[in-house]
UniProtKB/TrEMBL annotation:
Main location: membrane
CC annotations in GO: plasma membrane
Protein name from the UniProt record: Spore germination protein
Membrane topology designation: Multi-pass membrane protein
Keywords noted in UniProt: Membrane, Transmembrane, Transmembrane helix
Lineage, uppermost ranks: Bacteria, Bacillati, Bacillota, Bacilli, Bacillales
Coiled coil: none
Protein source organism: Filobacillus milosensis
Length: 499
């Protein structure tokens, strides 16, 4: 019954929009203080309607009013040919008129005719292109996406000046009417990936889309997984790189991030700066990140498990240090670890929510004060304090912010399992995570590739990054139409100066 009532209301709303007339629409707009109406009497009376908050007043005074006031016009076609603005159209469709006026067009009505002229004089308000803040690199381009879709598309197109670059635009959100641009390269991008992404975005039923994160949550393969299944990036050069590999991406108007898919788990631990460095250095840094993530997840649970159940595993020299550090600690290892982990999370959250300078001060001073005070008060041991601090530092090495949040979250289930079942509990937790990752997909593609299914070719840019001369083929995971990136034999040939 509820579904039937909702369906009837939807039909009634659509029918009322169809039955609405131009005077009704104008009357509805007049309820807003920023809706302006200007009467122009030059020959036939004309009326200009627009929202002052959406229209560029300087462009209106320069490119519209002087041309419609200097002579008499017989019809709207003459006015359209006179005004030096290409983005203008004549229509009597109420829905088109409503959408155009609400996106920065002014409406010119001749007498009381239902057919009007719509002229684009949109006010463009957006911040300038700045450097990346989350994915900052020492070497490489220093441009980041902004909240303007047109600006972001410009950043993409100037890096991919090819006719094969295709942009499909959709509108999502019943209230916000948010524009979404889907990017692909014709002849390279797998059509199945493109159609999957397009279909999922078209099927979204929601009233408002404020940021690209809304769409990511709605179109992800598994809505209940803590692992992100699409990569968000603020770097246009990264979007261009993955498009050339055969992947798809989309940009959302009002969002300073691009979304990339399909993706794999390994990609979340690959910084884009890796491709600007020597392959040996980049590979070492990537391995350090992967080790840091495993260290961040496992080191505290292993500490709790060993001290609770497995004292025999500790070397004699180290056992004396641990006994000394915990001699006056009244709490069991699990409560001690949870106390420090929560303290670290509180400091991190407080630092993120406060203004930049204040947040940095709170993070540094708070960490020193709380850490020192907790050790002196006998609530925690200095050994565990060092371990938790190192684990927190290790979690910061994750290049993608959303994956960093996931790493922070899954440490706690590991902690509790370590308390209840020791190292067996840690092993069980690890098996659960691996089983979940094996079942996870991104736009229908395996999330754990190239580990499973095993693909040797894609290992060239997974845990390590081999030289460019070894990466002549596009990744198998993208299922690109054109799998060859360049001729490997020619790439390895080096001509002498005499030649």
């Amino acid at each position: 019954m509820k579904f039937l009532k909702r369906f009837q209301k939807s039909n009634q709303k659509q029918q009322s929009e169809v039955d609405q007339t131009l005077p009704d629409l104008i009357k509805q707009f007049e309820g807003s203080k920023d809706f302006k109406q200007s009467n122009i009497i030059v020959g036939q009376p004309m009326t200009l309607y627009y929202f002052s908050s959406l229209v560029d007043d300087a462009a209106l005074q320069r490119d519209v009013l002087p041309y419609i006031q200097k002579k008499e016009f017989q019809n709207l076609e003459e006015i359209k040919n006179t005004i030096p603005i290409e983005a203008s159209e004549i229509t009597n469709d109420i829905r088109t008129i409503q959408n155009k006026i609400l996106t920065g067009y002014c409406m010119l009505q001749l007498k009381h005719n239902e057919t009007v002229l719509l002229i684009k004089v949109k006010k463009e308000k957006s911040r300038k292109v700045s450097i990346p803040e989350v994915e900052f690199t020492v070497v490489g381009p220093k441009e980041a996406f902004v909240e303007s879709l047109d600006t972001n598309l410009n950043l993409i197109r100037k890096r991919l000046p090819i006719p094969e670059l295709r942009v499909d635009e959709l509108t999502v959100g019943k209230l916000t009417k948010t524009k979404v641009a889907i990017l692909s390269i014709e002849g390279i991008t797998n059509e199945e990936n493109l159609n999957t992404l397009k279909q999922r975005i078209e099927d979204i039923e929601i009233d408002s889309i404020i940021d690209s994160s809304y769409i990511v949550q709605l179109i992800s393969d598994n809505h209940h997984s803590p692992f992100p299944q699409l990569v968000d990036t603020e770097r246009p050069d990264r979007v261009v790189a993955v498009l050339s590999e055969g992947k798809v991406a989309f940009l959302v108007d009002g969002a300073p991030h691009g979304i990339i898919g399909p993706t794999t788990l390994v990609e979340f631990f690959s910084a884009f700066e890796d491709y600007f460095l020597n392959w040996i250095v980049a590979s070492i840094f990537r391995l350090i990140r992967l080790f840091a993530v495993m260290f961040s997840i496992l080191v505290t649970p292993i500490y709790v498990a060993v001290l609770t159940y497995h004292y025999e595993m500790i070397p004699k020299d180290l056992l004396g240090v641990l006994v000394t550090s915990r001699r006056e600690i009244p709490l069991p290892p699990i409560l001690e670890a949870i106390f420090l982990e929560l303290a670290i999370e509180l400091l991190r959250e407080a630092g993120a929510r406060l203004p930049t300078k204040v947040g940095q001060t709170i993070g540094i001073v708070g960490g020193i004060v709380i850490g020192t005070a907790s050790v002196e008060a006998g609530l925690t041991s200095n050994v565990l304090l060092i371990i938790v601090a190192l684990a927190a530092l290790a979690s910061f090495t994750t290049p993608v912010y959303k994956m960093g949040n996931t790493i922070r979250l899954i440490r706690f289930p590991f902690l509790f399992m370590a308390h209840f079942w020791g190292l067996l509990g840690v092993s069980i937790s690890f098996c659960f995570v691996m089983a979940h990752l094996l079942r996870l997909t991104s736009l229908g593609r395996p999330f754990l590739e190239p580990i499973f299914p095993p693909r040797v070719n894609d290992l060239k840019d997974a845990f390590v990054r081999l030289p460019w001369s070894f990466q002549s083929k596009r990744p198998i995971e993208t299922q690109a139409q054109d799998t060859i990136r360049f001729n490997q034999k020619k790439a390895k040939q080096k001509k002498e100066i005499d030649e």
